[in-house]
């Protein structure tokens, strides 16, 4: 299984759930108060589901990183249960992210409010709902990838790894931003963030 396999499964599950939710919104008959409540409920439910999936992603990524660094599976699971918690996920979602340039929770509120305003003003509600769905699925997928990157980094720090190597996927899709980083070694406290959305580069411990 690949390093991002849990994230891929989670993204597909979130995409299916969000598609159903946004399509149900198209069938709603709105007055103003119902409009606000329906959109708020949609985003709130999606965020709850995303947090659950992010916890699964980070937990698996943390364990995999520790095993890669020669920690036993049993010890790795125990460490993950202590370190990868709901609070850890919330901290990730409430910090300003250098890739997205926003905080997940604050941006979620902005997207929610924008859709409410757009649906109240437009005559083509389906188009606005489709647009909101595209923006929202991009956001939740980006943070799924970010959970892998951050959980692996946290795992290496937890066991005292001093240096890590940046490794690209090594295929024809490696982009101009990532290619110069391939093989570079960084102090674990000075690792740069992924340089762009949908980056699938990984960190490996330097033993």
Short key terms for the protein model shown above:
207 residues, mainly alpha, 3 strands, 63% helix, elongated
What is the typical, i.e. mean, pLDDT? 94
How large is the radius of gyration? Answer: 19 Å
Tell me the number of structural domains: 1
Contiguous runs where pLDDT drops below 50 for at least 5 residues = none
Find the count of extended strands (DSSP E, 2+ residues).
3
Number of helices: 6
Largest sheet: 3 strands, antiparallel
| Strand/helix succession | HHHHHHEEE
Strand content: 5-15%
Shape: elongated
Helical content (DSSP H or I, runs of 4+) = 55-70%
In whole angstroms, how far apart are the ends? 23 Å
Structural class: mainly alpha
Summarize it.
This protein is mainly alpha-helical. It has 6 helices and 3 strands, in the order ααααααβββ.
Protein architecture, described:
With 207 residues, the chain is mostly helical. It has one domain (5-159). 63% of the residues lie in helices and 6% in strands. It contains 6 helices and 3 strands, in the order ααααααβββ. The protein has helices at residues 5-26, 32-68, 73-83, 86-94, 104-121, 125-158; strands at 163-167, 185-187, 202-205. The protein has a 3-stranded antiparallel β-sheet, covered by helices on one side. Helix 2 (32-68) runs antiparallel to helix 5 (104-121), helix 2 (32-68) runs parallel beside helix 6 (125-158) and helix 5 runs antiparallel to helix 6. The protein is elongated. The model has no long low-confidence stretch (mean pLDDT 94).
């Amino acid at each position: 299984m690949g390093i991002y396999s849990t994230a891929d499964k989670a993204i597909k599950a979130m995409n299916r759930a969000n598609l159903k939710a946004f399509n149900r919104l198209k069938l709603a008959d709105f007055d103003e108060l119902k409009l606000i409540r329906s959109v708020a409920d949609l985003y709130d439910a999606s965020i709850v589901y995303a947090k659950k999936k992010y916890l699964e992603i980070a937990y698996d990524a943390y364990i995999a990183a520790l095993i890669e660094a020669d920690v036993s599976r049993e010890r790795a699971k125990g460490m993950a249960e202590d370190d990868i918690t709901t609070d850890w996920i919330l901290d990730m979602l409430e910090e300003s992210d250098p890739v997205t340039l926003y905080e997940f929770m604050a941006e979620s509120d902005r997207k929610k409010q924008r859709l409410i305003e757009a649906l109240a003003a437009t005559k083509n509600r389906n188009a606005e709902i489709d647009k909101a769905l595209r923006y929202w699925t991009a956001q939740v997928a980006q943070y799924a990838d970010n959970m892998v990157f951050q959980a692996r980094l946290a795992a290496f720090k937890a066991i005292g790894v001093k240096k890590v190597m940046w490794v690209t996927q090594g295929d024809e899709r490696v982009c101009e931003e990532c290619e110069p980083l391939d093989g570079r070694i960084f102090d674990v406290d000075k690792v740069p963030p992924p340089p762009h959305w949908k980056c699938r580069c990984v960190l490996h411990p330097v033993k």
